[in-house]
């Protein structure tokens, strides 16, 4: 096939032999899966319920004009005007342009497919339209919802975004996941019973009834639902609120032909209900191609075509590049505009010819004009908008907060999900309690039956420090992966306007609090009297309280490492080198009175120091006599002497507790700040 220029010279020649597939644009037959669209025509929109639309907005026309995107030279965000950078020789060098003056529009009742070869700009355009440009990319242009300038908050409130990667809390069941989504994504005025009815409706509509009580699963750890069911669950999560505008990034990626067709049928059905649906797709089959209402073909960051499939066939036929009979038009168009090794110049010439021809065509001029006019109210009024339509546009413009649920509702829902994930995670409960019991018995056996004599002083002090060290390392490494492992899920849900960062952080820490209160109590109960520590009942309860406080300080420090780390492996690598200095200044390996002045600040931040001193004061305070078991050796005469030898004091007991409480709060606050910073960097 050839594309002819104005002088009728071939621009590119591509062989189509051995690449033929049947292109069938006929309606689906009776053997098609349920929900298959049959035929085309006028769309009748009927809404029986309103599940959270803003201001009664049930239809959204999304337009964009002069969209440009540039690849930044650094990871930090730059202002849009800073397209140039100075090189070492003083000359100016332009950054790589990813999108070039892209115009377009998506209308209610239509399924718009963004197509193109790899690197054509499909994902970049979708990210720009949804205000999700990654770090290192700067963009400009105008985007409008029903003629009003779009903001990230308004777009988040009115749209749903089904991303290519499926991210879920794997320990939840399908139904539990959808209930959580309904609690945080549906309008706060909708009754709980109606939310649950909507959950059941979505489960039935997307054929999830058989797996609704099955856990989603964690790859390599917990077997769950299949890949197709997981993709349908992603759609179910987004359609719960019946959003008028939907974006989908490669919805058929990784699916077989049947499941891919089933997914596109779902999108087609949503469009026929009056929704505006925009999706990217790499190389659809002829059956999928026939289901699209509009095509936006991208090539080298430019618009090569935007219109219906029939208009696309006619447009390329007029250019001298007609699609051969019985050949998939999608393959034909993508192959035509894709770069081929050794033919870069010819490919660029072809892309420039096609994009220029479309920009000058009647369709291209109309789209550009409509995209520009959509930003001005006067032009929309002259176009015949009704008062009801303008009321909906005003609601879009006035909406500021992307959150559908109140703070309290978010907190209840996230806390409920966090508690489920804690209680249903076998590694967190069973293994940790088993570890606690085994370690406490081991320490109790090794230090069993200590007496208040010269040998017992050293052994008891060692047992107490081992007690302290175990509470630290066990609990830090138990939570060091909590936030970094769930970070992608949290960032996606937070940016989708489901809940706030403070709600997530508070809920996660509170859900795990009962575990961190129980574990030190179990450890103390088993090991305390086996070792032979101070037998007074009040001393046992004080030791248990101190163990719980030490555990929570260590947990807070683990949260800080987790929130500041980008991955679980990084957190596990960074944790020990940071903890060891605090342990060295705990008063066991290095006497507290001999700490160099220039390193004293580390000891003030060490919960080992405060915890060790508090536990030793609890043990030795009130002990008046200690037996000497070795001759010619000086032994401590009382517990007071033991404390003085270690440079500890009974008078510091209360300050030790206060300082550990301050460390507990300080580490938690710093962990939240770190999580907040990571959230903002991910925007």
From TrEMBL:
Database matches in NCBIfam families = 3a01204
> The organism sits in which domain of life?
Eukaryota
Pfam families according to UniProt: ABC2_membrane (PF01061), ABC2_membrane_7 (PF19055), ABC_tran (PF00005)
Q: Which family does it belong to?
A: Belongs to the ABC transporter superfamily. ABCG family. Eye pigment precursor importer (TC 3.A.1.204) subfamily.
GO MF terms, alphabetically ordered = ABC-type transporter activity; ATP binding; ATP hydrolysis activity; pigment binding
Localization recorded for this chain is: Membrane
The answer to keyword Signal applying to this record is no
Report membrane topology.
Answer: Multi-pass membrane protein
Spans traversing the lipid bilayer: 433-450, 462-484, 505-528, 540-561, 568-590, 657-677
ABC transporter domain residues are 78-325
Q: What is its main location?
A: membrane
Protein name, entry field: Protein white
Instruction: Report residue spans for region: Disordered.
Output: 21-44
For this record, an example GO cellular component is: cytoplasmic vesicle membrane
Tell me which InterPro entries the record gives.
Answer: AAA+_ATPase, ABC2_TM, ABC_transporter-like_ATP-bd, ABC_transporter-like_CS, ABCG_dom, ABCG_transporters, P-loop_NTPase, Pigment_permease/Abcg
Q: Where is the composition biased (Polar residues)?
A: 21-31
Native species of this protein? Answer: Galleria mellonella
* Alphabetic keyword roster: ATP-binding, Membrane, Nucleotide-binding, Pigment, Transmembrane, Transmembrane helix, Transport
PANTHER family, per database record: ABC TRANSPORTER G FAMILY MEMBER 28, PROTEIN WHITE
């Amino acid at each position: 096939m050839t594309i002819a220029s104005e002088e009728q010279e071939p621009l590119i020649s591509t062989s189509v032999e051995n690449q033929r597939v049947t292109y069938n644009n006929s309606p689906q037959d009776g053997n098609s899966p349920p929900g298959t669209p049959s035929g085309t025509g006028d769309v009748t929109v009927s809404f029986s319920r309103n599940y959270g639309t803003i201001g009664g907005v049930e239809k959204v026309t999304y337009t964009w004009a002069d969209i440009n995107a540039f690849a930044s030279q650094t990871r930090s965000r730059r202002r849009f005007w800073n397209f140039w950078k100075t090189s070492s020789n003083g000359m100016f060098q332009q950054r790589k342009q990813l999108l070039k003056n892209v115009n377009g529009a998506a209308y209610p009742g239509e399924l718009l497919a963004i197509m193109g070869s790899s690197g054509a700009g499909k994902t970049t355009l979708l990210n720009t339209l949804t205000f999700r440009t990654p770090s290192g990319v700067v963009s400009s242009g105008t985007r409008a919802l029903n003629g009003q300038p779009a903001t990230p908050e308004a777009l988040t409130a009115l749209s749903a975004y089904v991303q290519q990667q499926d991210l879920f809390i794997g320990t939840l069941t399908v139904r539990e996941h959808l209930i959580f989504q309904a609690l945080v994504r549906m309008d706060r005025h909708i009754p709980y019973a109606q939310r649950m009815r909507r959950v059941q409706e979505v489960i039935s509509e997307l054929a999830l009834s058989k797996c609704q009580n099955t856990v989603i699963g964690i790859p390599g750890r917990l077997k769950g639902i299949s890949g197709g069911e997981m993709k349908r669950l992603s759609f179910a999560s987004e359609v719960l609120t019946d959003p008028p505008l939907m974006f989908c990034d490669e919805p058929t990626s990784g699916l077989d032909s049947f499941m891919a067709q089933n997914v596109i049928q779902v999108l087609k059905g949503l469009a026929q209900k009056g929704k505006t649906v925009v999706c990217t797709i790499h190389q659809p089959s002829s059956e999928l191609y026939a289901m699209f209402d509009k095509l936006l073909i991208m090539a080298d960051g430019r618009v090569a075509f935007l219109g219906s499939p029939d208009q696309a066939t006619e447009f390329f036929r007029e250019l001298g590049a007609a699609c051969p009979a019985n050949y998939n038009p999608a393959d034909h168009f993508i192959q035509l505009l894709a770069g081929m090794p050794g033919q870069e110049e010819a490919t660029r010439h072809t892309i420039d010819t096609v994009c220029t021809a479309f920009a000058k065509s009647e369709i291209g001029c109309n789209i550009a004009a409509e995209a520009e006019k959509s930003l001005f109210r006067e032009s929309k009024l002259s176009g015949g908008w009704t008062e009801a339509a303008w009321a909906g546009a005003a609601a879009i413009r006035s909406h500021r907060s992307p959150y559908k649920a109140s703070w309290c509702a978010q907190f209840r829902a996230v806390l409920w999900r966090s508690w489920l994930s804690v209680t249903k995670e076998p590694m967190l409960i069973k293994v940790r309690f088993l570890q606690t019991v085994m370690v406490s018995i081991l320490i109790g056996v090794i230090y069993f039956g200590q007496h208040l004599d010269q040998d017992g002083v050293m052994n008891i002090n060692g047992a107490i420090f081992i007690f302290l060290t175990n509470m630290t390392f066990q609990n830090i490494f138990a939570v060091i992966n909590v936030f970094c492992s769930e970070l992608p899920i949290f960032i996606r849900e937070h940016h989708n306007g489901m809940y706030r960062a403070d709600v997530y952080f508070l809920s996660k820490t509170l859900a795990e609090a009962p575990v961190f209160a129980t574990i030190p109590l179990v450890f103390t109960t088993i090991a305390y009297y086996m070792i032979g520590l101070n037998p007074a009942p009040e001393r046992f309860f004080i030791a248990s309280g101190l163990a719980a406080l030490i555990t929570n300080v260590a947990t807070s420090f683990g949260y800080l490492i987790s929130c500041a780390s980008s991955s679980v492996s990084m957190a596990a690598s960074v944790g020990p080198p940071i903890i060891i200095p605090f342990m060295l200044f705990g008063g066991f390996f290095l006497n507290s009175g001999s700490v160099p002045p220039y390193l004293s600040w580390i000891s003030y931040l060490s919960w080992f120091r405060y915890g060790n001193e508090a536990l030793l004061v609890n043990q030795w305070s009130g002990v008046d006599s200690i037996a000497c078991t070795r001759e010619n050796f000086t032994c401590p005469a009382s517990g007071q002497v033991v404390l003085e030898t270690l440079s500890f004091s009974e008078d510091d007991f209360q300050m030790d507790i206060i300082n550990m409480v301050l460390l507990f709060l300080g580490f938690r606050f710093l962990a939240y700040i770190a999580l907040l910073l990571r959230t903002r960097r991910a925007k």
